[in-house]
Write a structure and sequence with these properties.
about 45% strand, about 170 residues, Lipocalin
């Protein structure tokens, strides 16, 4: 009876581990720090827009606890007349805001659909807070491509973000 009970417990443990780690291989592969390589949006006519320029700086982090963070910035950043934040003009602050985006929170992976879902808890522009932001992903070696589609101002947009894994030193 003891061996039967052990086998039952082992099968139950295996089933529980398998059920709770849906997408585990992809989740594990996504874990790490990723450097932004490119950030491109296309409208429905196919015209490209580079909201952070053609050489943006950015960092995306997925950790093993299910948390994520992303920061993206135009390079070079907009000029300001002073190194003192209190002396920035409204125009300078708007330019800096438009040149930067950042949010953090949790993430989930649906490997069957090849989707990572960002669940922002904080966001510089507050647009993503409380939403399930789905990003389709392609993961090839150390290259990660995230794509998304959305509607804005009456237009449909498709975004492509390319990242390269940052290797440990």
């Amino acid at each position: 009876m003891t061996s039967r009970m052990l086998v039952t417990l082992a099968v139950l443990a295996l089933y529980t581990a398998t059920a709770s780690s849906h997408g585990a291989p992809d989740t594990t592969a996504l874990i790490g720090s990723w450097k932004l390589v490119s950030y491109e949006d296309r409208d429905s006519s196919g015209a490209s827009v580079y909201p952070y320029g053609k050489a943006p700086a950015g960092l995306l982090i997925y950790d093993a606890t299910g948390h994520m963070a992303i920061q993206i910035m135009t390079t070079p950043p907009p000029d300001v007349a002073s190194d003192d934040w209190d002396l920035f003009t409204v125009k300078e602050k708007v330019a800096l805001y438009d040149a930067y985006t950042a949010y953090f929170g949790r993430y989930e992976v649906d490997s069957g659909r090849k989707v990572v879902i960002h669940l922002a808890e904080a966001d510089l522009s507050r647009l993503y807070i409380g939403r399930h932001e789905e990003r389709h992903y392609q993961l090839t070696g150390d290259r990660l491509i995230l794509t998304e589609t959305w509607a804005q101002s009456g237009k449909t947009w498709n975004g492509t973000r390319v990242f390269q894994r940052i290797k440990s030193r």
